[in-house]
From TrEMBL:
This is Thiamine-phosphate synthase. The chain holds residues 217 to 483 of 492 of the full protein. The gene is thiD. It comes from Geoanaerobacter pelophilus. Its cofactor is Mg(2+). Residues 20-264 form the Pyridoxamine kinase/Phosphomethylpyrimidine kinase domain. It comes from the Bacteria.
Length: 267
């Protein structure tokens, strides 16, 4: 009767992120990805955005104490393999998330350092980026910056794969165990992502897909990696499978709404 991919979820991912009322990015993208790939998803909300495919019209932050209460409620009851973070909004919220991770060392942290929405709205306070580098980045198993985020974190201008490698080394030195820099913003016909584990670089090449329906790409990609990790895949395989998933999700995206439609999670 129901077309379920798997009868029982395998692995558990907790997403700590903002809500996108349009359903394309943020916590909504994360839960769709985790669920449709067959794991259990829980969610801790950091902010509400009033948003559709044309942009963010307003943001309402969740008080850090209430973020901490959500973290405690989930982590004291539900087994979590991977904590995936997206929009974190403020230094106070980053501190609450870091404290929860310090008390739950068995969970892997996949940190998507979300900074800007496509339309330019800031999804994190300016000064909170510095705090994120100092407080949360050293706790990460994997960080997944795009090019502008990697430039902001590393202070390095990236114009090619060499620059991506330099930035990956710099961000690895800040304490993340693994660094995945996504090359989609380099603007040529390929979209090469680079994974650095502190000793070797692995390239994940893909042909660029020209589409305006790319809303939620970063959230979906990081959530897919988190899900495959929660299911026990080694990092290199988790990234390869997630890259395949996001490529297909962009290729098959439908034009929902009048602006940038969401990627297709229903693959
Ligand atoms: N998180 C929230 C709540 C957002 O609204 C957005 C973008 O608008 C993002 C994350 C980042 O989206 P993307 O996956 O397109 O980078």
């Amino acid at each position: 009767m129901f077309n379920r991919k798997a009868p029982f979820p395998r692995g558990s991912v907790m997403s700590v992120a903002g809500s996108d009322s349009g359903g394309g990015a943020g916590i909504q993208a994360d839960l769709k990805t985790v669920t449709l790939l067959g794991s259990y998803g829980s969610s801790v909300l950091t902010a509400l955005t009033a948003q559709n495919t044309r942009g963010v019209s307003n943001i309402h932050g969740v008080p850090a104490e209430f973020v901490a209460e959500q973290l405690t409620a989930v982590l004291s009851d539900i087994p979590v393999d991977v904590i995936k973070t997206g929009m974190l909004f403020s230094s106070q919220i980053i501190d609450a998330v870091a404290s929860a991770i310090e008390s739950n060392r068995n969970c892997l942290l996949v940190l998507d350092p979300v900074m800007l929405a496509k339309g330019g709205a800031a999804l994190i306070d300016r000064e909170a980026v510095t705090f994120l580098k100092l407080r949360l980045l050293p706790l990460a198993y994997l960080i997944t910056p795009n090019i502008p985020e990697a430039e902001r974190l590393s202070g390095i201008d990236i114009i090619d794969e060499d620059g991506m490698q330099q930035a990956a080394r710099a961000i690895h030195r800040m304490g993340s165990r693994n660094v995945l820099i996504k090359g989609g913003h380099l603007g040529d016909n390929n979209s090469v992502d680079i994974l650095f584990d502190g000793s070797a670089f692995i390239r994940y090449p893909a042909q660029r897909i020209h589409s305006k329906n790319t809303h939620g790409t970063g959230c979906t990609f990081a959530s897919a990696i988190a899900t495959f990790l929660a299911q026990g895949e080694p990092l290199q395989i988790a990234v390869a499978k997630a890259k395949q998933f996001i490529t297909e999700a962009i290729k098959t995206a439908q034009p929902i709404g009048k602006g940038h439609g969401p990627v297709n999670h229903y693959i």
